[in-house]
Specification:
The complex is a heterodimer of chains A (172) and B (444).
Chain A (H helix, E strand, L loop, with lengths): L7 H21 L25 H12 L3 E2 L12 H13 L5 E6 L6 H21 L7 E7 L10 H7 L1 E6 L1
Parallel strand pairs in A: 2-3
Antiparallel strand pairs in A: 1-4, 2-4
Chain B lengths: L12 H14 L15 E2 L8 E5 L3 E2 L2 H20 L3 E3 L17 H6 L4 E10 L2 E10 L4 E11 L3 H17 L7 E7 L7 E6 L6 E2 L7 E6 L5 E6 L6 E6 L6 E2 L6 E6 L5 E8 L2 E8 L5 E3 L7 E6 L5 E6 L6 E6 L6 E2 L7 E6 L6 E7 L2 E7 L7 E2 L5 E7 L5 E8 L2 E8 L6 E2 L8 E8 L2
Parallel strand pairs in B: 1-26, 2-4, 2-5, 3-5
Antiparallel strand pairs in B: 5-6, 6-7, 8-9, 8-31, 9-10, 11-12, 12-13, 13-14, 15-16, 16-17, 17-18, 19-20, 20-21, 21-22, 23-24, 24-25, 25-26, 27-28, 28-29, 29-30
Helix pairs in contact in B: 2-4
The chains are: A alpha+beta (172), B mainly beta (444).
């Protein structure tokens, strides 16, 4: 197309053709609610996807797709029914090679706080090791334990406890 | 208690335990809370306990302010002695003698209300400085046995009261009192944060030590009370911090290391810590400068919660190497590691008594924790609590009492119990939700 002076209505079409895709990309992130990284874990990007580009967008997108993995009481081994979740997480991580992941291990409120700090680390480590076995580079994965300090469910029954015994995967 | 020429003495804890065991062995009456089938554990039956009756008169003063201070001092002394569970301060409404009568005391009137000891004194207030004089009388002997003088700022009256209470305690029991000690603990001033606090042993004068809006936990005093160590997540990962008595300028011991918690050697030159090494929690020795460390455990199990024997020769720790958390002991160089706890499936928080004769710990019973003590060889397990969720015990510096955290219903608080299971009391002025108490030594 030569750059001759466009007629008025053709100009509007060109403008529309440019603007509509931009708007679509810009608002795509608004439909999903990105997960907030937990305080004190590093410089994760928060907030909606509106207008994010490059790595920030990848962090946000990856975060939206990463899922929590759950554990048995007093155990840190990966349950067989959780392995598929980890495989899916591995695919997400592979899809965004510029994103790093912190695996955060948590415990329920029973047991002693000191022991649970160590147990949370073992859970985080187990999650990381599983991902490494699936081909993720260990340099992209860090681990941390919060013990029983950051429950998602403040309840005092098995339903709450089961939700709190977990690894969370935080994109950074 | 006989009225010989010797000074009256308070029944020692050994007498109480012996009495308790005699009661246990001699009868299984219906209604007594004895669990005869609990695998050899012994629930201590509250022994019949006769408390030492002491009359503490308001100290007299030459001005209205001095009189008020004199009454406050007497109140604090009474509360301190009552706190121990072995003294019974008598009701001042029953006192018949004028508090100004410090010479020629009429001991017969004091005997008539059952007093075994008597305290009188005076306060002189001069421009914000006070001079306190106190006299302790042995009522049965009919004589004054101790005279003390204290001076200081008027606003330090509480410290003076505590010193006097310590003097009284020491005279009648032979042991140091705890009234000059403090507790450190973790509290939740705002949602999502946990900060370190210190307070007097009875919960008064609560002071916030950390203010970093992160998770801070597991404060532990050095034996001389000059420093605290604690764990903080403020760098993003848990690591150990040290802070001096000024409670300012906490510094990380090894900032990039993941350290879960630590405790001071009795000499204060070393810290035993649980840290992340090779993907696993291990016990390490760190110098208090943080530069050198020795690894003491090398086991794939979780090894954590190290604490010291009072002579510094041994270290207690928790390990799940046998399948679930149990209490272990080793020499301070890591040799001779062996298991101490064999009753119950989950035993944690071991702490050696400053007297050296018992170890206190928390053991899980039916999904919640109770406080137990045992001998240093793991034998003679005695259960001290039986309700609530009781964790994180810590000894008083004289080994007579234990503080611990307890969840009862929806509330968590700091409690104290005597080493023989009697005198359970809540530290009411510690904030709601306070956890992880650590009892200091004597703070000069």
């Amino acid at each position: 197309m030569t750059m001759t002076r466009a007629r008025g209505w053709q100009g509007w079409i060109v403008l529309a053709l440019v603007l509509i895709p931009l708007l679509a990309v810009g608002t795509a992130g608004c439909h999903k609610k990105p997960k907030q990284p937990i305080e004190g874990t590093g410089t994760g990007i928060t907030g909606g996807g509106e207008g994010l580009t490059g790595r920030a967008a990848h962090v946000s997108e990856a975060q939206n797709q990463l899922q929590t993995v759950y554990f048995e009481y007093d155990r840190f081994d990966i349950r067989s029914d959780q392995q598929e979740t980890l495989r899916q997480n591995a695919k997400v991580i592979q899809a965004y090679p510029d994103v790093n992941i912190q695996v955060q291990g948590h415990c329920d409120e029973r047991g002693s706080e000191e022991y649970n700090l160590a147990l949370g680390d073992k859970r985080a480590r187990a999650g990381k090791d599983f991902l490494v076995d699936l081909g993720i580079s260990p340099d992209r994965l860090s681990t941390i334990s919060f013990g029983e300090e950051r429950p998602v469910d403040p309840g005092h029954d098995e339903t709450a406890w089961a939700k709190n015994r977990r690894d969370e995967f935080v994109a950074q | 208690m006989t009225h010989t020429g010797r000074r009256p003495s308070v029944p020692s804890p050994c007498t109480h335990v012996a009495f308790a065991l005699a009661v246990l062995l001699s009868c299984f009456l219906p209604g007594l809370p004895i669990d005869a089938h609990a695998q050899g554990r012994t629930l201590v039956v509250t022994p019949f306990e006769r408390k030492f009756k002491i009359a503490i008169q308001p100290l007299v003063g030459d001005t209205a302010d001095a009189m008020a201070l004199g009454k406050q001092i007497a109140d604090v002394v009474s509360r301190d002695l009552d706190f121990t569970g072995i003294f019974q301060p008598l009701n001042p409404a029953s006192f018949l003698e004028d508090p100004r009568q410090v010479e020629n005391v009429d001991f017969q009137t004091w005997r008539s209300i059952g007093a075994e000891a008597l305290v009188k004194g005076s306060v002189v207030d001069t421009d914000g400085r006070i001079a306190v004089e106190a006299r302790i009388f042995d009522v049965y002997k009919g004589q004054r046995v101790v005279g003390k003088r204290y001076s200081g700022d008027a606003r330090d009256w509480r410290q003076i009261a505590h010193k006097l209470a310590n003097e009284i305690f020491k005279y009648f029991t032979g042991d140091d009192g705890v009234f000059d000690s403090q507790i450190a603990f973790a509290g939740k001033p705002t949602r999502g944060a946990k900060e370190i606090f210190v307070a007097d042993f009875d919960g008064s004068n609560v002071t916030q030590v950390t203010r970093n809006a992160s998770i801070n936990n597991f404060p532990k005093w050095s034996r001389d009370g000059s420093r605290l160590c604690f764990t903080s997540f403020k760098r993003g990962h848990p690591t150990l911090y040290l802070i001096g008595r000024g409670m300012r300028g906490a510094r990380a011991l090894r900032p990039s290391s993941v350290i879960y918690q630590g405790s001071w050697s009795p000499k204060g030159d070393l810290l035993a810590v649980a840290g992340l090494v090779g993907g696993n929690s291990e016990i390490l020795l760190l110098s208090s400068g943080g530069l050198s460390f020795t690894r003491l455990t090398s086991h794939p199990a979780i090894d954590t919660a190290p604490t010291w024997s009072p002579d510094g020769s041994k270290i207690l720790f928790v390990s799940d190497r046998s399948g679930s958390p149990q209490i272990y002991v080793m020499n301070a160089d890591g040799s001779g590691q062996h298991r101490l706890s064999f009753q119950g499936s989950y035993n944690v928080h071991p702490v050696w008594s400053p007297k050296g004769d018992r170890i206190v710990y928390a053991g899980m019973v039916g999904g919640r924790f109770d406080i137990f003590t045992m001998k240093p060889d793991g034998s003679n397990v005695v259960q001290l609590t039986s309700s609530g969720n009781n964790e994180y015990p810590s000894w008083a510096p004289n080994g007579r009492q234990i503080t611990f955290q307890s969840g009862r219903g929806a509330r968590t608080g700091i409690y104290v119990i005597n080493a023989n299971g009697t005198n359970l009391r809540r530290i009411a002025s510690a904030p709601e939700g306070a956890t992880a108490p650590d009892w200091s030594g004597h703070i000069p």
